[in-house]
Amino acid sequence: MDKIKLTHLKKTFGTQTVLADVSLNVKPGEIFGLIGPSGSGKTTTISTMLGVEKADRGEALVLDTQMPNREILGRIGYMAQSDALYESLTARENLKFFGEMKGVQQKGLATTIEHVSQVVDLQDDLDKRVSGYSGGMKRRLSLAIALLGDPELLILDEPTVGIDPALRRQIWQELQAIRDQQRSVLVTTHVMDEAELTDRVALLIGGRIVEFDRPQVLEQRYQVTKIEDVFLKAEAEVEK
Ligand SMILES: Nc1ncnc2c1ncn2[C@@H]1O[C@H](COP(=O)(O)OP(=O)(O)OP(=O)(O)O)[C@@H](O)[C@H]1O
Question: Where is the ABC transporter domain positioned along the sequence (predicted)?
Fold first, then answer.
């Protein structure tokens, strides 16, 4: 059973068609990458699938349920592009608050907070107020919050922006461990090396998914060795 299933989604803002016709599915136990030029509609795809924005046409099912749905939202680890954090609280207090909201048992909460803050390397800064955090630290805290409660589905909008390469690698190891537990991850990224690490990747160009397959299959199809080159060639073809 698919964790996400989008069928012929269309979304316009005024006269601008941002999503012309988007269909995709995310399976259990996979890391699914959504890549595309800036402004191609990656964030809109996410907000429409979650029901934050209303689709003009088509259907979006998340965990077999039409969104928006509060109960389902509670079962997803969602990291938006802008951080929604309590600035006047410390990181630990934020994690505690969101952990309780997600129903993490009080008994295991401290251990869970320990684990997610280690993944994003914030364990030494947990008792600082978020207002004193850098942009990258806030991103890392948002990611830690998304990881709370071991959600069966993670939806991460550019989770590694402003994050150093070594930590980025550590975060991807965690995403792979999550995948290996048969949980699913949908991730948008601008970093082509990251797209290489996904199980399947979709290229969103001009409001359509122009390619959608395993990275290696796409590289063979375009006779290149990197997803970056697939991306550039596909983009040039669309622009023709
Ligand atoms: N609420 C909105 N009202 C009007 N236009 C919007 C709205 N949200 C997005 N758009 C427009 O839709 C287009 C796609 O934006 P979106 O943020 O989905 O792209 P993106 O692929 O996520 O971009 P980036 O990679 O830069 O984050 C842009 O032209 C944007 O201006």
Answer: 4-231
Strand 57-62, strand 4-13: pairing: antiparallel
What single-letter DSSP state applies at residue 6?
E
For 228, the token pair is: 């970056």
CA of 217 to the centre of ligand 1 (A): 29
Question: Residue 188: which of 84, 32, 59, 49 has the closest Cα?
Answer: 32
CB-based burial, 57-91: b 16+ in 10 Å, e otherwise: ebebbbbeeebeeeebbebbbbbbbebebeeeebb
- What tokens were used for 194? 């990251």
Interatomic CA distance for residues 43 and 34, integer angstroms: 10
Residue nearest to ligand 1 atom 28, measured at CA: 39
Do the beta carbons of residue 34 and residue 205 sit within 8 Å? no
Q: Is the CB of 43 under 6 A from ligand 1?
A: yes
At 173-207, the pLDDT tens digits run: 999 999 999 999 999 998 888 999 999 999 999 89
**Closest residue by CA, ligand 1 atom 12:** 18
Q: Distance (Å, rounded) from C-alpha 124 to C-alpha 127?
A: 8
